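step: validate -> pass
step: tokenize input -> pass
step: predict -> running
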Amino acid sequence: MRAHSRLELQRKLKRRGYGEDEVVGALGRMAEMGYLDDRKFAEGHVRRRSEGRGPLALAAELAARGVDRPAADAALGTFDRAAQVAAATTLARRLAGDRRPAGYRELLDSVGAKLLRRGFSMGVAQEACRAVWRGTDTTSGP
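step: predict -> pass
step: emit ->
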């Protein structure tokens, strides 16, 4: 079963026609049983999705699922800069594929732009592209 945040589940139950009292009661029982915890949901979401998404994208996804800002920030705190660079570098290698760019700037313009769209910061994207560039050409680079 896919994990849901409290707000996301509340919306889904209402869309399916359950009344307000039924929804509140069900959510209360689920919370008492430990099935509904936005903090744990956010941590799991960040852990599962951080291989292909940066913190900006992850924060937007959590907000869209109704996770409050403190729970989202706590979960994103586990995705430190070193982990972001490692994830972005792995993703940059995959995005670059077998193509050999003419130079670092070309790599940054193509792959770096894709990393930015996936929610990584400019600094992390540059560092990841630098690592990929150095791995493809050891004689020159920025």
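step: describe -> Residues 6-76 form one domain.
step: cleanup -> pass
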